Amino acid sequence: MASDLERYSRQILFSEIGEEGQRRLLAGRVLLCGCGALGSVIADTLTRAGVGFLRIVDRDFVELSNLQRQILFDEEDVESHLPKAVAAAEKLQRINRDVTIEPVVADIDHTNILDLCDRVDLILDGTDNFEVRFLINDASLERSIPWVYGGCIGSHGQTMTIFPGKTACLRCLIDSVPEPGTTETCDTAGILGPTVNVIASLQCIAALKILSGRPDAVSPHLTIIDLWDGSYRRMSVKDLRDRADCPACKRGDRSWLSGQHTSQSTVLCGRNAVQIAPQQKAELDLSALAAKLQAAGTVETNPYLLRLRLNEPDVEVTVFRDGRAIIKGTQDPAVAKTVYSRYIGL
Predict the structure, then answer these.
(1) What DSSP designation does 315 have?
(2) What single-letter DSSP state applies at residue 178?
(3) What CA–CA distances, in Å, run from 261 to 131, 245, 269, 297?
(4) Separation CA 159–CA 151 (nearest Å)
(5) Torsion over CA of 30, 6, 45 and 303, rounded to 10 degrees?
(6) What is the pTM for the complete model shown?
(7) Fewest CB within 10 A of the end CB: N or C in the chain?
(8) Residues 247, 249, 254, 260, CA torsion sign
């Protein structure tokens, strides 16, 4: 075994990967959408496995409540107000310097998803909402890039791998975003760390199969688990694409990618917070903005964001360089938009 592969010796001993598969992993390029609960476990696992390039995209920053399940972060990241993508990249580079980590602090939307997919072999779902997943699904079909869907809530979760044009896509399985109030959220059901770890691990196994040159080993199933009950089910989706008259993979609909489904505000799960995004992306001078906001409350900045604690109680505004802001202290988009307009004014 070559000395440059010694780090991966135990993985290479697994016959289904071997040395050739490991070299393929080292050449693999992955887009990870989201670096929260699922994303942080995925990023850690793939970095240790030697996937050569990992582009991590996340819109959020590290908070204390993340530490229960988001394994790459610690209390120092919370105190530093670091964006998750940046904090993750710093940790991952200390784990494996041979892997190229590209952190991107951004909200994934129809204006940037195709650029984020540039020169990647696989997309992994580390998000927490169906709007982004449907967007990933459109981009996957448009660029013929496989992706691995995953989601979890409470003690249960599910995952499925999608090969564009060959297997069922997400819209074959779920034809539209669930209506508000019809599904559980982390606000209503919570989330257990072990659930996250199991679903992320199943996503990573699919990723290792694909990137090591064994996509044929990926099972055509939707896998559903409930760790509290100890149940494990697999639902075959082998013939689902043939049976479903899917608007996306059968009829070429790209309504998410075209921007027909967009929202300038997003209620953040479990956070008592709303994200506001301007219609046009900006390039803010955070230092100049900090100077303007000094009279409004307590202002802290770092190279990635500005945090304003308003003089009025229980309202906190975190502004990113692209003009996005997370308004903490409300779940009402109208209230959040009012705060954004008053203090950011874009």
Answers:
(1) -
(2) P
(3) 8, 21, 19, 35
(4) 7
(5) -70
(6) 0.88
(7) N
(8) positive
Count of CB atoms within 10 A of residue 8's CB?
Answer: 22
* Contact indicator for 108, 70 with CB cutoff of 8 Å: no
Fold of 265-343: TATA-Binding Protein (3.30.310)
Nearest to 89 by CA among 44, 45, 51, 48: 44
Domains of the chain by residue range: 3-243, 265-343
Best CA proximity match to 305, nearest among 281, 329, 284:
284
Which CA distances in Å does 33 have to 23, 84, 269? Answer: 24, 12, 17
**Which of 117, 169, 186, 246 is an active site residue?**
186
Here the tokens at position 159 are 């995952």
Q: In this structure, are residues 159 and 201 in contact, taking their beta carbons and an 8 Å threshold?
A: no
User: How many whole angstroms separate alpha carbon 129 and alpha carbon 256?
Assistant: 14
Instruction: Judge contact between 123 and 140, C-beta under 8 A.
Output: yes
Q: Which CATH class is domain 3-243?
A: alpha beta
Residue 167 near residue 237, CB atoms below 8 Å: yes
The pLDDT, as a whole number, for residue 311 is: 72
Instruction: Name the helix (H) or strand (E) containing 281.
Output: none
Active site residue 33: no
